[in-house]
Structures are given as structure tokens and as C-alpha cells.
Amino acid sequence: MFPKGEPFRQDRDDSQSIRAPARARDVQQAIAELEPWFHNLHLPDGSQTAPDHWLGDFPTYKWLEIAPHLPVNLDGWCALDIGCNAGFYSFELARRGARITAIDSNPHYLAQARWAAVQYGLERRIEFQRMQVYDLARSRERFDLVLFLGVFYHLRYPLLGLDIVAQRTARLMVFQTMTMPGEEVFEDTSNLDFNDRELMRHPGWPKLAFIEHRLANDPTNWWAANHAGVEAMLRSSGFRVVARPGAETYLCEPDPENSSCTTTWDRTEFDAATGLAWTDSARNGS
Ligand SMILES: C[S@@+](CC[C@H](N)C(=O)[O-])C[C@H]1O[C@@H](n2cnc3c(N)ncnc32)[C@H](O)[C@@H]1O
Known about the structure:
Layout: H1 24-33, H2 60-66, E1 78-82, H3 88-95, E2 99-104, H4 107-120, E3 126-130, E4 143-149, H5 158-168, E5 169-176, E6 208-210, E7 223-225, H6 227-236, E8 239-246, E9 249-254, H7 267-274, H8 276-284
Parallel strand pairs: 1-2, 1-4, 2-3, 4-5
Antiparallel strand pairs: 5-9, 6-7, 8-9
Bound molecules: S-adenosylmethionine (SAM).
S-adenosylmethionine binds at residues 1, 38, 59, 83, 85, 103-106, 109, 132-133, 149-151, 154-155.
């Protein structure tokens, strides 16, 4: 979601504009030049990038929920931060010793993140790349830890995005998405009879509500799942949920006993949807 009341913007690339750590007055100026901020970063000189954030001290309070569920020492871990925004979570993981690949589709946020990394002296531990989540389909790299926070509901093709991310996850994924209210879970969804579809109206049936226009004035909010829907999609993409660190937040591991169909009987659909089928056939000359 974008800052409340701020226009949706995909076009600005400030990535080259500010490089070196700056003095206090310069820091204030840079913060102003790089507005609007979605992450309230607490910078080394005591300044904050979004002290009046409509969500409070975001995402510090969210990190305080997640942090106890991750190893304190991430030395030797490689992590992927999808939709890194201004880099808050990348900086926290880097401080624990991980090497980070941080991606975002929006150059404005990447410019903030690159600038902030320099302020913290963490720029050598984090590689920032302007990428769509879908671009990860063409990578062969797998990451020990993947953060997939606040992005799923922005995807027009959410399950494709999740399937792609699953194939990049080696050990742990932290997943957060905007949900609709309700914690109910309809237990047996294994093979509904054609004439029993009324059961889908049960509040615990896995659901994904489509947002045709806007939610909170943001046209990139496409989907809101219910809790049962989140868990069902995570399972279907080959994960198992091992903890729930906070509201709408799920800690997951790849589940070797429940492989995703995208790695077995439905691989051809995944390859076609990601363009991998075309790439392979072009490479093989067929
Ligand atoms: C609501 S913010 C979440 C930021 C951060 N992950 C967090 O949880 O605080 C969504 C971020 O995802 C990025 N984003 C949206 N669609 C994306 C896509 N298809 N691929 C990569 N990043 C995307 C946006 O530019 C934005 O920085």
C-alpha cells in the first residue's frame, strides 16, 4: 500500500542522486527530496523518514513481531527481500549478518533504500535491484530466507508470484498480505462434490476477494484473502506454516511432503505462464 493520500508513482528514479553519508542538515534535505516515504527509518543521526506515518512507527512494530522468529545470527545466510521499499527489513537482516538481495519494482523506493544503506554503512551487504517478483522465475538462485511482505495483494497474478517465490525459497519465508476479517477454517476442502458448492459460502472456505477498482485509494491493491485462503495458497505452493508472528503474517518452510503441483504434474502451465517454456524452446531451437 502506498502512503495514505499520496499519488501512486512508478516513474521517478533517484538512484544516482545521493550517495555519500551526509551531515545532519543534508540528511534532512535528502529525506525531504526523497519523499514520500512508506518506511519510517530511524537514521544514525536520530532523524526519521516518516515520523508521522499513518500506521504508527512502521515497520518497526511489525519487525518486533517477526524478529524473535528468525535466527539472531544470520552469518552465512543469503536473504531475498521482495518489495524491499526503503529497505527497512534488509537493513535488519544485514545487521544480523545476512547477505541480501533486495528487489523492488519501483525506482523511487529503491533510491530511498540505496541512500539509506549508505547512511547505515550497510551498502556492501545489500544488492538492490529494480525487478518485478515475476522476474525471479528466470533466476536459478535459492535463498535461505525470503521476505515476501506486503506485496502479494499488490500482484495482479498473485498465485503465479507465490509459486515463483516458492521455487526461490530454500529454508524460510516470512509472508504477509492484506487479509479480510475472519479466522475460520473449513477443514475438509479436499474434493467437493459438484452439487455441494453451497459449502463455498462458509466463512472458512479459502477465499480471495477481488478488488476491481481501489482499496484505500490505491489501484494496485488487487486482492484480499481470508486466513483460510492464505494458508491454502501457501500449502498449494509447497509451504507449511510453522508460526504466525503477527496479524496477517506467516512464517513458512518448504514442505518436502507436499510438493507444489508446479514442480510435478502442472509444471508445463508454470513454464508457460512465466515464459520459461518459450525460453527453453527458443534455446533448443524448437
Ligand atoms: C506495501 S509495500 C511493502 C514494503 C515492505 N515489503 C514492507 O512490508 O514494509 C509494497 C512494495 O512492493 C513493491 N512492489 C509492488 N509490486 C511489486 C512487484 N510486482 N514486484 C516487486 N515489487 C513490487 C512496491 O513498490 C512497494 O515498495
